[in-house]
Amino acid sequence: MSGFDLHWLDLREPLDKRARDQSLLQKAGEFVQASKRQTIIDLGSGTGSTFRVLGPHAPDAHWRLIDLDEKLLKEAERRHFQDQNITYQRADLNDLASLSLDKADLVSASALFDLCSRPFVETLADRIGGSHSGLYAALNYTGEIVFDTPHPDDDLMIRLFNHHQKSDKGFGPALGPDASNVLASIFTNMDYRVDLAQSDWLMDETAIELHRLFVDGLASAVAETGMLAQGKVNEWRGFRVAQAETSKCRVGHCDVLALPQSIR
Ligand SMILES: C[S@@+](CC[C@H](N)C(=O)[O-])C[C@H]1O[C@@H](n2cnc3c(N)ncnc32)[C@H](O)[C@@H]1O
Question: What is the 3-state secondary structure (H, E, C) of 193-258?
């Protein structure tokens, strides 16, 4: 599975950066710095946005960026060709057994786990627990979307969008808005220390294009469900796209940090 547009990832990166919880980034960095090999494996790396924010918190770390999308991985390589501490691996995360995750002190991922299924996350957690590694999982969508200028169909559209978020995104039925709670409960049951922190997007006048693309994508997802008349979807889409310039929207996200009780 792919189709993660470079332009979309570039538009969201500044918002993601602003939204990420700083104390979890710092704790993740400290954990890596205290570990023996200082190795981080980033899953679904895209162009390397997790490296760009977490890297400064663990300046001596060795990174492996893994993604299925060759174009995004090449772009990551182009942006960081001077950095000797990064290797790049094109791989399908569904083939977890082939990823040598046991080499990681920390597994990281941003904006990934809401796309993944529960069995995938359980298998991954098993692998992470087996090597006493940590997990930094940022920017998991929570299902909450709040517009500051209401439309009568907002609730219905958001409900249907969240329904669509649970469809297969390449890993089996996706966790969608349940991702952070599922991660937290799996790692808590493994006796990990789990921290959750809100990392909402705030789309304001600095993010008009992203706001437009987001509501357009939301409407397309609802249309795909076939659960609402196309005319109604289009009316909402038209209203929301027109409003993007002057209104604000908050999209709920949550960062998760799960660390083993003992250092590797
Ligand atoms: C929403 S993007 C997030 C990218 C990056 N982590 C960021 O925050 O900018 C999800 C990423 O997961 C990758 N991805 C999706 N399914 C994958 C799979 N089965 N195997 C490897 N990578 C995958 C996509 O190519 C994309 O780069």
Answer: EEEEEECCEEECCCCHHHHHHHHHHHHHHHHHHCCCCHHHHHHHHHHHHHHCCCCCEEEEEEEEEE
